[in-house]
């Protein structure tokens, strides 16, 4: 049986986390009512206090988990200060959870440009108009900024702002959790080994 054929009852047999995550995300895409790629992103601010918010996963492979944001936002500043982060996926319809944590790297300009070009035009305008996470004096001020940038980019392509790009969490650890009766849940954690492979351990629920 391949990793992508693993069912919820035998996922603990997987020897590699990325294909298992791909299989679970595929299941979530079929069962979640919306945004199966939604994930809680945790960072730490300059006072050492944890911070968390929902973002959308925009890509993953054996190199890590990618999302995009304004680097001048709270999460952008916090990640740039530490270059570390964690994620938690929870798919209620499947009673499954995946936790990811590790160091962070910035995606290449080519990757960021390619993804930015796929966004709806209004979202690209918004990336220019929104001073994300900073105080907003009124809704009118935001709408005025949107109108100004819409006029400025009325024709042609909208370039990606220099302050808008992507982060990739390069996991040092990935944990899979599946609900079981009487709280006797299945938990398996993959930890990056010194040789670049993965060590796997079962955990008490």
From TrEMBL:
Its cofactor is FMN. Binds 1 FMN per subunit. It holds the Pfam family PNP_phzG_C. Keywords: Flavoprotein, FMN, Oxidoreductase, Pyridoxine biosynthesis. Residues 164-205 form the Pyridoxine 5'-phosphate oxidase dimerisation C-terminal domain. Signal peptide: none annotated. Pathway: Cofactor metabolism; pyridoxal 5'-phosphate salvage; pyridoxal 5'-phosphate from pyridoxamine 5'-phosphate: step 1/1; Cofactor metabolism; pyridoxal 5'-phosphate salvage; pyridoxal 5'-phosphate from pyridoxine 5'-phosphate: step 1/1. Substrate binds at residues 58, 115, 119, 123, 183-185. Residues 26-150 form the Pyridoxamine 5'-phosphate oxidase N-terminal domain. Its EC number is 1.4.3.5. InterPro entries: Pyridox_Oxase, Pyridox_Oxase_CS, Pyridox_Oxase_N, Pyridoxamine_oxidase_dimer_C, Split_barrel_FMN-bd. FMN binds at residues 53-58, 68-69, 75, 97, 132-133, 177, 187. GO terms for molecular function: pyridoxamine phosphate oxidase activity. Homodimer. Catalyzes the oxidation of either pyridoxine 5'-phosphate (PNP) or pyridoxamine 5'-phosphate (PMP) into pyridoxal 5'-phosphate (PLP). Belongs to the pyridoxamine 5'-phosphate oxidase family. PANTHER family: PYRIDOXINE-5'-PHOSPHATE OXIDASE (PTHR10851:SF0), PYRIDOXINE-5-PHOSPHATE OXIDASE (PTHR10851). This is Pyridoxine/pyridoxamine 5'-phosphate oxidase. The gene is pdxH.
């Amino acid at each position: 049986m391949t990793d992508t054929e693993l069912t919820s009852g035998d996922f603990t047999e997987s020897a590699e986390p990325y294909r298992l995550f791909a299989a679970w995300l595929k299941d979530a895409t079929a069962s979640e009512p919306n945004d199966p790629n939604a994930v809680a992103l945790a960072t730490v601010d300059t006072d050492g206090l944890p911070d968390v918010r929902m973002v959308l996963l925009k890509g993953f492979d054996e190199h890590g988990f990618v999302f995009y944001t304004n680097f001048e936002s709270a999460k952008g500043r916090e990640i740039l200060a530490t270059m570390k982060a964690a994620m938690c996926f929870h798919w209620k319809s499947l009673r499954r959870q995946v936790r990811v944590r590790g160091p962070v790297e910035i995606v290449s300009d080519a990757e960021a440009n390619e993804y930015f070009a796929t966004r709806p035009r209004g979202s690209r305008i918004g990336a220019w108009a929104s001073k994300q996470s900073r105080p907003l004096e009124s809704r009118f001020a935001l709408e005025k900024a949107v109108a100004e940038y819409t006029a400025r980019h009325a024709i042609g392509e909208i370039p990606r702002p220099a302050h808008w790009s992507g982060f990739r969490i390069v996991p040092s650890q990935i944990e899979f959790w599946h609900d079981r009766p009487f709280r006797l849940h299945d938990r398996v954690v993959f930890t990056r080994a010194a040789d670049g492979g993965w060590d796997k351990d079962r955990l008490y629920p």
